[in-house]
Amino acid sequence: MKIKLFVCAVFTMNLMASTLMAAEARFFRHLKFRETPFSSYQGIHPINQQQAQTTAHYRFEYDDYQRITSIAYMLGDQIINDNGNWDTFIWFAPKVTISYQPNQEIHQYFNAGNQRISAHGAVYTATYQLDKQGKRQSLAFTNENKEASENAWGIHRYQWQHVNQQELIEKRFSLDGNQQPIRPEFKFFETHMTFDDLGQLQLMKNFGLDGKPTNNDSGAGMDRIFYDFAGNFQRWHVFDKDGHPVEGNRPMVHIGEHLYDEFGNKIGLRGFDKQGLPKTFSWGEFLIKRSFDASGNQTASLVYDENMQLVSNIKIEYSSDGLKRTWLKSFDTSGKLTSSANLGGAAAINYKYEADSLTPHKIIRLDEQLKPINPS
Question: What is the pTM of this model?
Fold first, then answer.
C-alpha cells in the first residue's frame, strides 16, 4: 500500500512539475519593435506550443516571479539563426538569457548551438542597474574578459533619467565618455522619449549635445512612432524640432510605413513625402515586398523603383526542415538568373553546412550559369 501511495505521489508531482514548466514558457511569432534597450522585450502574435513545432517563434521562459529568464528564436525545438524575419533593432543573437541580482538585471547571449557568444560588437554581458522599484537606470557592456566594452554602435553605456511615469531622458556614452547617437545613422543624441500606457515608445525628441531641442544634419528633430492594435510597428513620422513635417533621418522620408500579413510578417515597406505622396528612400528603393513560407522564413524580397519597375528579385531557399538557408538567387524580370549588387555581384549564393551545424562552413558565390566566381 505504501509503495502504491509513493508511486501515486511521484506521478502527481511529475504531472504538477510538467504543468508548471509548460506554464512558464510562452510562444510568439514576433517581438515588438524597440528603439531603445530601456524598453523590455515583448512578444506579439502569440501561438501555442503545438504551432511552435512548425513555426519560427520566440520562446519566452519565466521564473516564479513572472520575470523573463530566457528568450530564444526557434523553429520547433531548435534555436535558429536569422531567417529574414526582422522585428527590431534591439535583438542581437539567437538567444538571450536574463538573470537577476539585487538592483541588477544581467543579459547574456548565445548562438544557434546554444553556446555563449559576444554579440553586436564586443558585448559579452549587458548589465542593467535598477532602482529600488526595479526601474532601469542605466545599462553598460563588458567583453569576455569582463572589461568595459562598446557595442557595434560605439556605445558603452546608456543612462536614463525618469521625468515621470511616461517620459524619460536617454543619453548614450562611448568608452571615452563622449555622447553617442541612437545609432550611427540616426543622429539623435540626448533623446527625450515619451511612452504610452502599454510601454510603447510614441515620441522621440533630439536635444543634441547641449540639452536643447535640435535638428540633426538631415533637418530632423522629432520622430513619432505608431503601433497597430496587434503591436506591430506600423509607421514613423519625422518632424523638425518645432513640429513641422520634414523628410529626414537616414530614410529621408516624412512617413515610413510597414505592411504586415495576418501573422505579423513584414511583407512591405514604403515611404511618403510631406504631402503624403509616395517617395523613394535615400538608398534608392521605392517599394519593398517580401514573402514568407508557412514556417515564417522569408522566401522572397522584391524591390521596385518609382516607376514600379522591378529592380531586384531575390529568392531564398531553405532545407526541407526549414532550419537552414541554402540558397539566395537573383532573377531578372523574365525569370532568368542575373547578377545583383545585393549579392555582391553574384547571381546566386549557395550555403554549405556540416552535419549538425546551423552555421554554414562554406559560402559559394556563383554567376548566371551557376558557376563559382573566383573558386578557391
Answer: 0.91
